[in-house]
Structure formats: structure tokens, C-alpha cells
């Protein structure tokens, strides 16, 4: 786990060896302690160089160990004794030095990094802080401002930036171990005390308080309700005010609170859930590791509207050739302008050459004849999409995949009009498509495993977090979203205001409440969908619209707003009031309050006092309840996939893990009890009825979320 090599020079090499990222597991830490002691005992050894196997220094502590009882040599003590050692210690950083990996390097007397290395302290993203001295040593190197930024965001930096900040002493284009050995030979015998960061005084400056205040305000705004970023500011502040040993006490104190917190558990769950999503499996047994994806180089994008533009940008940025097609010259020109501008801005920002040579703009389907895969992003209209699909089959090569970006239409129905049902899958991007990380890859009943593998690999190549899901209306994300939106609307009918609902959701951790999001996306979008789906039609009285449609409760409030031309931000009025069309600052609108009061009077609804707790229970538990139904239906392979979709596509607060994890943390029996309660009060809302899987899991003793897949398998085998 740590290999000791005695080199011919007076140097010992300690190689961390725990693939794939050389995490500092208990065995690795033991190996390091033994190797250091061997080096200290050898009089011929004057210096020790630390490196990682496979040119990867270390991805930090082994996150898997955090859920068990920690054993082995403690990292803090190990790093302290490395720093205190009378022999020279040098870190040779290649690949990454993250978290405990960087803290180990900070305990060394010198650090050398390869130009391609990345360094960072990402602990905050796991719900705690750099608790092996990172919060005290880093500020002593970089000063407080840079340390605050790095520690509170967890941002990874390049070797070059690390050099500028003083975190590494040297950057090499060659082999970092070789460079570290050369550096060691050149400084052996020089005094080590000036190199021991823990011996440096606090990094106090007159503006410490204001710098920390600014940092605190920033983290509170960016990660609402998350404890770790706040604790990180407190720990770094201690490095400015206190001697090292006292600062370490503060770091330890804060770490004790964070380490076993529910937020840390949620964030660590999210880390593994994200990685797990890439390991897709289909109900027929096909999996990520038994299915080969063929290479894709040229992609066609059909429709350069809101979504097509972002999709084209993502593809080109990843180095793929794109043929972008529109229906007429005017639309093409406007799409071309937008895509070109986005790509040029991005290239400028990143200081790289323009990739515009990878783009071709087209008006004729014939220009798609050589592409390997097509992504269709035309209007959400089944007939139009079918026409596009069947026209495509006339020009595409036999093996070309046809993918649709539909937000919820039936992928099987679309596949049926093609000559290649096995090569049709959904690739459901989220707006804005060049920014949002989530991609739902939707397999239909005839989609081949290879087609799924190709779409997943393409998504990964364009840096999306991909989740394979089955075909049903709305797939996973939008199917659940509908119930969440329904509940928030029912809460308005029953007595809440948009501000009240949004405030409760924002306090829970969402960056934006659901009504603010609706105003941002445009209320007309859903209105069009409801018209197309037959929920709104000529038989509905526009003045006294019915609150009962298709056999269940229906809230006509959004339709009534749209009738008044209140489409949200774009018209300056929606659930909120805006200074002008397009402006972003949402202000409560007294007109809406009157409108809601009139509405309740008209329908004889006695307004209730709605608590924040009720808002969260009805919104979040409804999401989870539908998530259980999705698992029952086999539309998602496991709860982690659902949570990843909500974390990356719907702004679910990461420190709450995702709706399924949240349900598991609150307690499944509590969720069941609450759903039963709300269903009793609202029998006209069938979706509030607790799902079969939820009942079953409670009956089986509410097993931990990691075991749900087995219970679902059993449930399926009994059907
Ligand atoms: C009351 C109790 C009081 C207790 C007080 C306790 C005090 C204890 C003090 C302890 C102080 C500890 C402080 C500390 O050291 C903290 C840390 O170091 S936390 C870890 C910080 N590191 C990270 O967050 C890095 C996470 N990893 C990554 O960002 C990426 O994986 C990486 C950039 C390294 C590589 O990316 P990529 O090539 O894309 O590969 P993958 O991401 O797919 O990963 C491949 C594989 O490796 C697994 N893995 C990655 N990192 C870790 C890790 N740190 N630990 C365990 N496993 C890791 C990952 O899950 C993948 O495995 P799969 O099986 O394929 O899923
Ligand atoms: N807007 C959003 O937030 C999201 C939309 N989607 C889905 O993406 C698809 C596209 O949506 P938007 O981009 O929002 O629509 P949009 O209205 O902005 O763009 C659609 C584009 O398709 C073009 N088009 C129409 N018929 C065409 C044809 N026959 N050939 C070539 N181009 C044609 C139109 O000219 C228009 O530019 C829809 O299926 C939608 O449901 C999916 C996720 C999010």
C-alpha cells in the first residue's frame, strides 16, 4: 500500500499504492508510517520523496472508510510527524493532490508538481473541512483570501496557479519524481524550520474580519443551509488569529461536529451516487461493463432553438464535428449567430483557439448523410417529431443512431416510424444545455444495449452526468416534477402565497423556489403542454375553469395567469412582479395576493395557515413517493439514479442527498405516515397515496438506502 524504495542517491522514495486514486486508506497510512520510520532509521538516507503509483499522487482520504469505524494511524498525527522529521521530506505531485493528499504534501518541506497536476481541498463538497491541518497550513502559505476561496469552494487548481499562490515550489514539464529528487539533492542540509508551516505565526492582517465577513456572506448565499462552508470560514479565521496548535484545536472541534453530520452523510452519498450512475444496467441484463460503445465523431443536431443551440455548443466544445440543421433560413441564421457567439465567448474565456471549423450549418437533411448520430431538438410535437424521424431514415446511413431530446414524449412511439428501432434512444438534456450537467439517456423497449452505451459514452465525453432511465411519460425527472408542481399549486389554493412556498423551499436549500423557477422558465411553456395534452380545451369555461380534470383534482391557477398574459420574467409579471420584462429581481405582487383571495372565494375554499413544514413535506415527500413508484416500475435502476437526476437537473440541495436519500434520512415510516395523513385529507389527489414499495420497505424494517435495490429485485421477481 506504500512501497519503500532505497535509491542510490541518499534518498528514499515512498510510493503510495492504492489504485485507482491512491486514496489514503488505513493500509496506506500504515504503509507510510512504516516507510517513514524505515527512512529515519537509515543513516544513509538524507531525504524522502513521496509520490503516487501510476503518476497519481493522491485523491485524499478514502471516503469509503468514513462510514465505518476509522482505524489505522490518524492522518493528522502522521502528517505532523512527517513535517517534524529531521530528514528532508519532498512531495512529487503528479495527477492529483486532493484533500488529505494535498494536506500530506503541505506537511512536506518542499512540493514539486508536474504541469498537468491538479491540486485542491475538496472536503467542503463532502460536508466537512480539510481536517488534517489543511485549514491551518494552507493560509500560512497563501494568505487568508486565497485560502478562504480554495477551502470554501473546494476548487481544484492547476500546478501553474499553485505555483503562483506559493503552494508548490516548482513546476516541471517532466517527471515530478525526478525533479523532486534533484530539488532534494540541492537543498539537503539546509535548515528545515523555515519550511515547517506549523511553525509559522498566524497570518493576521488588519482586514481579517471584513475578509471573513465577505466570505461568510458569499458561502451563505451560494450554498444555502450548508454547514461545512461556514465552518471552513471559521477554521481559516482561526489560522489568522491563533497559533498553530490552537488553530488545530479549532479545526478539530469543527471537524467533530461536521464529520458525522447528516449533511456530510448526504454529500458523501451524492459523491458515490454520481459515480454509480455511470455504471448503468438495463432490465435485460446489459450493463456498462458488458456492452461496447462505438465511436462517434460527427453529430447532427436538428432544431437550433433553446435546446439545440446548447447541445451543439456542448458537442463542439468536446471536439466533435456538428452539422446543425434548421427548418428555414431565418431560424438558421438566428441559431448560427447564437451558437457562434457562445463558442467564441467560451474560447476567449478559456484562452483557446476558436472551434468554429467543427460546425456546419444546414437546411437540407441530405447534409446529415455522413453523421454517426443525430440529436433531434425540434418543437415538442409528436407528429412533427415523427415526420422528422421518418425523413431522417431516408438519408442516414444504416447504423446511424437517432436520438430525441423530447422532455417526455414516448420514445417507443417515435422509434416505430423508423427503420431502426434498436438505434433510437432519448437524450434528454436540461436547459441551458451547455451549462446543465444532467443527461437522461432514455431506453425504449427496442433500444439496443449498444445504442444506450453510445449515448452514455457521448454524454460522458461532453462532460454530462448521464443516467440511463426507462421510457414513461416525463421519464424520471419530469414525471416526478409534475407532482412537486401540483403540490405547490394546491398549497396556493389552500392558503399559501408564492413567496411563502418559495421561502420554505429556499430555506430547505433549493437555490430558487418553484414559483421563481416557473417565472424564469416561462409559464407559457407548461400552458402549451397542457393544451396539447387535452387538459385545456374549448370545453373549459375560461372564467370559472373546473378544478377537476381527467378524473382528478386540477389547479387552473397557472392557466388563469397565462390568460392574463403573465408569462413570468419575460413579460415582467408572473407569480411575481418584475421591474420590466426580462428583469430578474422577483418582487411579491399584491395583485397576485388579491387574485388568490378572489379565487378562493369563488371556489368556496377556506384559506388555511400553511406551515413551512407542510410545504416541505408535501413537496419533498411527494417527489420521493413518485420516486418509489418509478423504482417499482423499473424506470430507474436504483434510488441513487433518481437522486443524481434531482441533484444535477433540478437544483435539489446537494447537502440533502436527493429526494430518495432525504426520505431515508427522515425515516421511511415517517414519510409513510405523512403520505397517509395527506392522502386522507386530500383523497382527490391519487398521487398522495403511499406507493407500494414505500409500504413494503417500511414493513421490512426500513432498510438503509444501499439495500433498496435488493428489495426492489425481490419485488420484481414476485410480480
Ligand atoms: C465524532 C467523530 C469525530 C471524527 C473526527 C474525525 C477526524 C478525522 C480526521 C480525518 C481528516 C481527514 C481529512 C481528509 O483527508 C479528508 C479527505 O481527504 S476527503 C477526500 C478528499 N478527496 C476528494 O474529495 C477527491 C474525490 N475524488 C475525485 O475528485 C475524483 O475521483 C478524482 C479527481 C480523484 C479522479 O477522478 P476520475 O478520474 O474522474 O475518477 P472517478 O471520480 O470516477 O474515481 C475513480 C474511482 O475512485 C474512487 N475514488 C475517487 N476518490 C476517492 C476517495 N478519495 N476515496 C475513495 N474512493 C475514491 C471513485 O469512487 C471511483 O471508484 P468506483 O468504484 O469506480 O466508483
Ligand atoms: N426548453 C427547455 O427547457 C427544454 C426543452 N426540451 C425539449 O427540447 C425540444 C426543443 O425544445 P426547445 O429548444 O425549447 O424549442 P424551441 O422552440 O426553442 O426550438 C425548436 C426549434 O426547432 C426548429 N424546428 C422546428 N421544426 C423543424 C424541422 N422540421 N427541422 C429543423 N428544425 C425545426 C424550430 O425552428 C426551432 O428553432 C422539445 O422537444 C422540448 O420538449 C427538453 C429539455 C428542456
From TrEMBL:
Catalytic activity reported: a (3E)-enoyl-CoA = a 4-saturated (2E)-enoyl-CoA; (3S)-hydroxyhexanoyl-CoA = (2E)-hexenoyl-CoA + H2O; (3E,5Z)-tetradecadienoyl-CoA = (2E,5Z)-tetradecadienoyl-CoA; (3S)-hydroxyhexadecanoyl-CoA = (2E)-hexadecenoyl-CoA + H2O
Classification via InterPro entries: 3-OHacyl-CoA_DH_NAD-bd (IPR006176), 3HC_DH_C (IPR006108), 6-PGluconate_DH-like_C_sf (IPR008927), ClpP/crotonase-like_dom_sf (IPR029045), Enoyl-CoA_hyd/isom_CS (IPR018376), Enoyl-CoA_hydra/iso (IPR001753), NAD(P)-bd_dom_sf (IPR036291)
Any Gene Ontology CC annotation: peroxisome
3-hydroxyacyl-CoA dehydrogenase NAD binding domain location: 299-471
Subcellular localization, as worded in the UniProt entry: Peroxisome
Recorded metabolic or biological pathway in which this protein acts: Lipid metabolism; fatty acid beta-oxidation
Pfam families registered for this protein in UniProt: 3HCDH, 3HCDH_N, ECH_1
EC number: 1.1.1.35, 4.2.1.17, 5.3.3.8
Domain of life: Eukaryota
Residues covered by the 3-hydroxyacyl-CoA dehydrogenase C-terminal domain: 474-578, 615-702
Gene Ontology BP term (one): fatty acid beta-oxidation
Keywords: Fatty acid metabolism, Isomerase, Lipid metabolism, Lyase, Multifunctional enzyme, NAD, Oxidoreductase, Peroxisome
GO molecular function: (3S)-3-hydroxyacyl-CoA dehydrogenase (NAD+) activity; delta(3)-delta(2)-enoyl-CoA isomerase activity; enoyl-CoA hydratase activity; NAD+ binding
Protein family per UniProt: Belongs to the enoyl-CoA hydratase/isomerase family.
Subunit structure comment from the entry: Monomer.
Name the UniProt record assigns to this protein: Peroxisomal bifunctional enzyme
Species this protein is from: Hemibagrus wyckioides
